[in-house]
Amino acid sequence: MNASLYWRCRHALILALPVLAAMVSQNIMNLVDTAMVGTLGDTALAAVGLGGFAIFMFQALVLGVGTGVQAMAARRMGAGEQTGMAEPLNAGLLFCLFAGPLLSLPLFFAVPAIYPWLNPDPAVIEEGSPYLQWRVLAITFMGMNWAFRGYWNAVDRAKMYLFTLVTMHVLNIILNFLLIFGKFGFPELGVTGAGMGTAIATAFGTLMHFYLAYRHAFHAGFARIWPRPAVMSRLFRISAPSGIQQLSFSTSFVVLFWIIGQIGTREVAAASVLINIMLLAILPAMALGLTTASLVGQSLGQGSVRFAHRWGWDVVRLALVMLGVLALPMWLVPEWLLSGFIHDEQTRALAVTPMRLVGVFMVVEAFGMILMHALLGAGDAKRTMITAVSLQWLGFLPLAWLVGPGLGGGLLAVWLTQGGYRLVQAVVFVGLWQRLKWARAKA
Question: How far apart are CA 248 and CA 71, in angstroms?
Fold first, then answer.
């Protein structure tokens, strides 16, 4: 590795570490949250699990604002526009302030009618509906938090995001303890308390972001520059495709589990573990992807398409090494890895070969994940969204149904199809990156 490549990879890794730490923090918080609710029984666990998944779908369109803020702010940082660097952040917060309530208020009243579609069990509906209603009320704050995350990543200050997120998680755990179990004079609200605690902690996180931005981004125009119509329009142009892509991603998991459910219950149990392990293992690629988006945007802001192009490939190299190391246990000892999650021998046997496939396609994920975020960082969100959504809904999911329940191929056939889909998507993103049309995108 030459000195220049070493420096660039080292720089990308240093920027990505706080982002990765924040993502790990999120997963740890989810595990603690699940453990607390799990003491209330299977009904409570199912209610929170389904509610958490539903809220991810409901707020996906608002969360796309983080991509727009990051792409635009990174360009300005690269161009040296210090006094107006936070204008995209102001635009993102204003967008969330209007769009958030338009989503959350109708959904709040619609949840009791929507929840039976997620699960027909009356007990799960009774506990899950108020939990989801509390989570829905926090959509505006969650959107703002993602706007701040995009800004902090864009200006290479991800530590601000990490500090806020960890504080928010600690508060969430404390509130859950008090409100779920009714400790120290607080009412015992069970699953509803878990939703309330998460909503309050999310709002507190937004207040922290405002405080930190006032201290560290006021000079860049935070809360001082009213976003121009052209900036609002550009933000929407970049953010809307990203939000649609996230909505597609979350909804596709519902459809995938429905497809696997047509094969059998053991297959659903095995797939649940496989997907959770995969999502945990690709966190480094996601963190590096967000970092790549900032580095590409900054380079384009400096007027250097060549450096922006190099950043994409340099971070891919770094991701290949990291994901390759993480994939080794999946290749070599899948039974041992699965034994901590799956205790039924027949179910575990079903998951062994798909687990090896997850390891193989982790390397492919390095190309797809990094270059997808690089394209988003360049502001080429529409083309990226069309590619991802088309391959998912017109390719992978129909084929997964055909080879799985349709032709009787089972879980292994579905997983092979998923691997093929990931490979095709990575090849397409490589082609889009090499064609350099993204260099003409405006952000």
Answer: 21
